[in-house]
């Protein structure tokens, strides 16, 4: 996300002698984001994803063989063994590279998709490109590059988008929309005006699909329909109820006042379950990715029943990667898949198409 862009130390305006210092600042910010996400409580206080209030009807006689329950699916033309995505997280620093390699190896092993963190650091400084280059370890996965959409208002255009995709050898580009995060950062890029037409230009000129993604506060029906009309190929809701980026910014805030303002937004946003519904209504023809606060395979099953084509996890996989490496991530992805299969079996859905036609019920 915003990590590479500190206006008090702009990376793109340093002289060669200052480069080491600027790199150190980027590295520090990346490390801060990872450390805060791993060590601090960055969850919403009271707001939940809304998935806890929904349930799939239990079918005691599913008329299925459990061994034949099939989780495979396709997204943007690539097959996934199970409808999971490791959501965009990091890059741009040595530690971030280790995490990306860990996540990519695991994604290849279990056959799921993966997003890289904002590639801006590598566009500003080519020597950081290696931190995003995981393709050799994950030749078959659906791999997604990532840039902040707002950068299109700060000098970025089709060339930078192409470069981001090329650096990562990605199959698609995520443009993330993090207006609230920018607004609570003292150094944030807050000019989101006139952005839609720039997104439209990128969608029409980039040779790979563009995915619009929030970062933890969700998309409304209005925004989803605007993004669909701009030509995005998919929407990742990244709704509220999981990692709260206003909380992350609160822990990084330089003054008590900044911390107070960021902290006030702890329960802001559109719960993930609601945002999936809004996006289905606003962009009925697009694949919707559900993410934000997804805990387990039962949540995944509910999201698919709500209309999601795939489901993303960020914080859960980050903590597994940091604490237990490739094996840890493979293990977590395996457990989530097992939970999904049991949920499918127990609700009488033998495959993802059947699951997506299941009705969700509201718990009284
Ligand atoms: C350490 C970290 C870094 C992140 N960086 C990015 C990023 O660069 N681009 C982006 O679109 N989202 C980024 N995110 C947001 C996640 O992709 C995701 O939308 C959000 O954390 C909500 O998912 P969760 O509740 O499963 O963690 C980051 C998340 C984490 C934990």
Summarize the structure.
The chain is α/β, with parallel strands linked by helices. It contains 13 helices and twelve strands. The chain has an eight-stranded parallel β-barrel, surrounded by seven helices. A two-stranded antiparallel ribbon has the order 1-12. A two-stranded antiparallel ribbon has the order 2-3.
Please describe what this structure looks like.
The chain is built from 13 helices and 12 strands. Strand 6 (143-148), helix 4 and strand 7 (172-176) form a beta-alpha-beta unit. The chain has 364 residues and is an alpha/beta fold. The chain has helices at residues 19-39, 94-110, 120-124, 158-168, 179-184, 195-205, 221-230, 245-252, 256-263, 272-282, 297-306, 315-346, 352-356; strands at residues 54-56, 73-75, 78-80, 84-86, 113-115, 143-148, 172-176, 210-213, 234-236, 288-291, 310-313, 360-362. An 8-stranded parallel β-barrel has the order 4-5-6-7-8-9-10-11, surrounded by 7 helices. It has a two-stranded antiparallel sheet with strand order 1-12. A two-stranded antiparallel sheet has the order 2-3. Helix 2 (94-110) packs parallel to helix 12 and helix 7 (221-230) crosses helix 10 (272-282). The protein binds flavin mononucleotide. The site of flavin mononucleotide has 28 residues, from helix 1, strand 7 and helix 12. Flavin mononucleotide is lined by residues 1, 33-34, 37, 87-90, 117-118, 146, 174, 176, 213, 215-216, 238, 242-243, 291-294, 313-316, 318.
